[in-house]
Amino acid sequence: MNELDFIVLDRDGALAEARDGLSRAGFLAAAAAGAGALLLVARDASAAALSANDVDILNYALSLEYLQAAFYTEAERSNALSKQAAGAAKTVGAVERAHVEAFRSLLGRQAIARPQFDFQGVTEDSGEFVRTAVGFEDLAVAAYKGQAGKLDSGAVLAAALGIHTVEARHAAWMRYLNGVKPAASAFDEPSSKAEITRVVNATGFISSAPNMSSQTSPRYTG
Amino acid sequence: MATADPRSSKALNEEPIRARSSRVELLRRGAGAAGLALAGVTAAGLPAIGAAQSPDRDARALNLLLMVEYAQVGFYEDALRDGNLRGERKSYANAVLEHERAHLDAVRQALGGAADPKPPHDFGDAIRTFSDSAARLEDVAVGAYNGQAGNVSAEALGAAARIVSVEARHAAWIRSIAGRPPAPNPSDSPMTAAEVRKALEDLGVQL
Question: Chains A, B: CB contacts under 8 A, how many?
Answer without folding.
Answer: 249
